[in-house]
């Protein structure tokens, strides 16, 4: 599959948007909604969205793999945000002008401190050697995920730096089913991925449980929309509402020039998550081989998956580590196995 664009910045909506003074469906404490109009965003038109590659937008938290201490490392998303005084000034300006255009930041004084290891995301503009905030008043960036940082414990659970591996969920055999595998971090270098699982964003895909939490990474752009609807407001709305393939959080279009545009169900006034998500219902096979000489069993999650290596599940939400479980697999091309 061709290499698709990485997610380093906030992705614009495929439609022009407007702000409605109604409580947000997406964010509990937000007293306004950003909704799509029926007019296509000029950015999408310029990038020829009609010829773009449509992929599923997954509901997790964004990660990045790049070098740290001379080795490929997983990095967590950390946007640098304004302090209380600057945020108040910014909101007041936005309310008065209905836009953030023309607002002046003092980057040295207006923003909260970040760890010394923090780096700005790609394409963040700079002025006088300082990164410039985006239209939302944030400076997108990354921090390396280290073993002893409790704030990123779920990120840390999906990587083993001693073996140089990460737990990745990816399509196999022309998307017939998914494979959860231990993938060398070096093969993920400069990719962005979505961390999903039990303790991420309310776990819309039903992975694991409190007793046995399950987390994994999914490379951005790897989960294609098999028969995407036309890029049209009404047809997209109907697809999300009526098509079984539309039980997804949203669509991200990867354009030929590297641009990314998206639509989220909330942009169209629709709810998320669905009770039964399309992704959570996909079949999966486990490929985490404990017999590999390079594999290090110091990670609980890696160890747990290695014990069910080769086991197949009819839905990823059914994955569990009970060795007595009989596994049923519905795909005709893959035989069922007994654990």
Automatic annotation (TrEMBL):
Instruction: Reply yes or no: does the keyword Cell membrane apply.
Output: no
This protein's cofactor list reads: Mn(2+); Mg(2+)
Q: Per its UniProt entry, which superkingdom is the organism in?
A: Eukaryota
Protein name per UniProt: RNA ligase 1
Coiled coil: which residue ranges? none
What is the source species?
Answer: Betta splendens (Siamese fighting fish)
Gene Ontology molecular-function annotations: ATP binding; RNA ligase (ATP) activity
Functional summary from the UniProt entry: Functions as an RNA ligase, in vitro. The ligation reaction entails three nucleotidyl transfer steps. In the first step, the RNA ligase reacts with ATP in the absence of nucleic acid to form a covalent ligase-AMP intermediate and release pyrophosphate. In step 2, the ligase-AMP binds to the nucleic acid and transfers the adenylate to the 5'-PO4 terminus to form an adenylylated intermediate. In step 3, the RNA ligase directs the attack of the 3'-OH on the 5'-phosphoanhydride linkage, resulting in a repaired 3'-5' phosphodiester and release of AMP.
InterPro entries noted in UniProt: RLIG1
């Amino acid at each position: 599959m061709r290499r698709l664009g990485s997610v380093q910045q906030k992705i614009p909506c495929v439609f022009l948007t407007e702000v409605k003074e109604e409580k947000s469906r997406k964010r509990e404490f937000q007293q306004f909604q950003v909704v799509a109009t029926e007019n296509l965003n000029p950015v999408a038109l310029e990038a020829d969205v009609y010829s773009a590659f449509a992929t599923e937008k997954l509901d997790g938290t964004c990660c990045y793999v790049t070098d740290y201490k001379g080795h490929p490392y997983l990095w967590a998303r950390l946007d640098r945000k304004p302090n209380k005084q600057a945020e108040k000034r910014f909101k007041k300006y936005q309310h008065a002008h209905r836009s953030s255009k023309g607002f002046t930041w003092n980057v040295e004084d207006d923003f909260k401190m970040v760890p010394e290891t923090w780096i700005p995301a790609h394409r963040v503009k700079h002025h006088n050697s300082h990164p410039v905030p985006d239209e939302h008043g944030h400076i997108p960036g990354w921090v390396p995920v280290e073993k002893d940082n409790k704030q990123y414990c779920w990120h840390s659970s999906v990587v083993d730096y001693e073996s140089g591996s990460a737990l990745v969920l990816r399509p196999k055999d022309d998307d017939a089913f998914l494979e959860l595998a231990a993938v060398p971090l070096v093969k993920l270098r400069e990719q962005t991925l979505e961390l999903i699982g039990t303790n991420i964003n309310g776990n819309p895909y039903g992975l694991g449980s409190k007793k046995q939490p399950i987390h994994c990474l999914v490379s951005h752009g790897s989960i294609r929309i098999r028969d995407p609807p036309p890029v049209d407001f009404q047809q997209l709305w109907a697809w999300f509402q009526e098509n079984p393939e539309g039980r997804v959080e949203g669509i991200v279009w990867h354009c030929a020039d590297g641009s990314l545009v998206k639509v989220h169900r909330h942009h169209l006034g629709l709810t998320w998550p669905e009770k039964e998500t399309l992704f959570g219902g996909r079949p999966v096979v486990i490929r985490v081989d404990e017999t590999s000489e390079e594999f290090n069993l110091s990670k609980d999650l890696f160890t747990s998956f290695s014990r069910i290596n080769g086991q197949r599940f009819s839905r990823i939400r059914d994955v569990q580590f009970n060795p007595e479980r009989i596994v049923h697999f519905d795909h005709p091309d893959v035989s069922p196995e007994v654990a």
